[in-house]
Amino acid sequence: MKPTHDALLERLRQAFPEAMIQIKNESNWHTGHTDADHYRVRVLDARFNGLNRIARHWLIYNAVYNWMSNQGYALNIIPMTLKEAAQVMDDQLAAARFDIEYVT
């Protein structure tokens, strides 16, 4: 069974009930991968305070790994704290770091 946007969102909401979660399907960017789904997952949560980027990625990955492990599936994970999200609004370099389109 292929993963769906809604199923992925539900898994992440269970793991991060207070987070703001954004999921974007990027499968169309990967031609030739007809059996795989590619998603960009942005999770904004205070739980990430004080954690390095790898630890944040593991928290997100652990929330979905048992569900996605046998599927053709890729995640582009972007974990952010509240402070980082606020900084992105005013800083073009910070926006680039978190893969956010900066609007001038």
Write up what this structure looks like:
This protein is α+β, with helices and mostly antiparallel strands and about 100 residues long. The chain has 4 helices and 3 strands. Strand 2, helix 2 and strand 3 form a beta-alpha-beta unit. The protein is globular and about 35 Å long. About 15% of the residues are buried.
Structural descriptors:
three-stranded mixed beta sheet, single chain, 104 residues, 4 helices, alpha+beta, 21% strand
Tell me the β content.
Answer: 15-25%
Mean pLDDT: 79
Q: How big is the Rg?
A: 14 Å
State the end-to-end distance.
41 Å
> Which residues form runs of ≥5 with pLDDT under 50?
none
Largest sheet: 3 strands, mixed
- Number of helical runs? 4
Given helix and strand content, the structural type is alpha+beta
H-E string:
HEEHEHH
- In total, the number of strands is 3
Cross-sheet strand order for the largest sheet:
1-2-3
Helix content: 25-40%
CA-based shape: globular
List the helices and strands and how they pair.
Blueprint lengths: L4 H11 L4 E6 L11 E8 L8 H16 L4 E8 L1 H7 L3 H6 L7
Parallel strand pairs: 2-3
Antiparallel strand pairs: 1-2
What is this structure, in a nutshell?
Helices cover about 40% and strands about 20% of the residues. It contains 4 helices and 3 strands. The chain has helices at about 5-15, 55-70, 80-90, 90-95, and strands at about 20-25, 35-45, 75-80.
